[in-house]
Amino acid sequence: MGAPIRRESRRDDILDAFTAMVAERGYDGTNFGDLAAGLGLSKGTIVHHFGTKEQLLTELHETYMHSRLAEVRVVWDALPGPAERLAAFLHLGVRYQVVDRTATIAFQREVRRFAAAPGMETSRGLRDEYRRLVVAVLAEGVRTGDFRPGDERLRTLQLFGSVHWMWTWFDPAGAEPVAAVAASFVDTWLAGVLADPARAGGLADPAGAVVAVVEEALAAGRAVGALDAGPGRTAS
Length: 236
What we know:
This is Transcriptional regulator, TetR family. GO terms for molecular function: DNA-binding transcription factor activity; transcription cis-regulatory region binding. It comes from Klenkia marina. InterPro entries: Homeodomain-like_sf, HTH-type_TetR-like_transc_reg, HTH_TetR, KstR2_TetR_C, Tet_transcr_reg_TetR-rel_C_sf. The protein has helices spanning about 10-25, 30-40, 45-50, 55-80, 80-100, 100-110, 120-145, 150-165, 180-195, 200-205, 210-230. Helix 5 (about 80-100) runs antiparallel to helix 9 (about 180-195). It is about 70% helix and about 0% strand. The protein has a domain at about 65-230: Tetracycline Repressor, domain 2 (Orthogonal Bundle). It is mostly helical. It is elongated.
């Protein structure tokens, strides 16, 4: 009988299980003992692949942000107008609660606490790049007259704060489908910054051109997530 076939997906399975556990319990409630027991592995195997729990968190954050940036780049290429770009960003933010929910919850519930932690420099750089894109589109919208004058950095903080805590109240199995929740979110938020608030309805439309680009962007994000995941693992 030949030697056992090594599972190429073992490392990816560990990261998936860690992500799910952080989403459910938080970082402090996640430990190698429970991970190993759930996967039928030894704690030594987890240490062999990742070394520390901090390294697992780092990879979770970096994988997540690579997917998000891939999506925003698709949007920025397809939608040149600042109002359309911002609407797409908002649609995406809501849809993450469904299309990548486990990773989104794991990322969002711990990102602030570990934002400045050693070893998170790459993750922090990716988050900064993401934030700068939104700040820039808000500033551009003011320059072009699409948006009312306002502080783009403060608006970005308000926007991120609104989206960041959706995991605490949004129920994917609730009565309102995610497209309707996203449309309401976009309509309300854009009406507050647009120079012509009447434009918000068209940008929020679940059947509109902006959402069609959002769907293309999500496909790009899934492709990047699958590549980051490596053999044997699919993006959540």
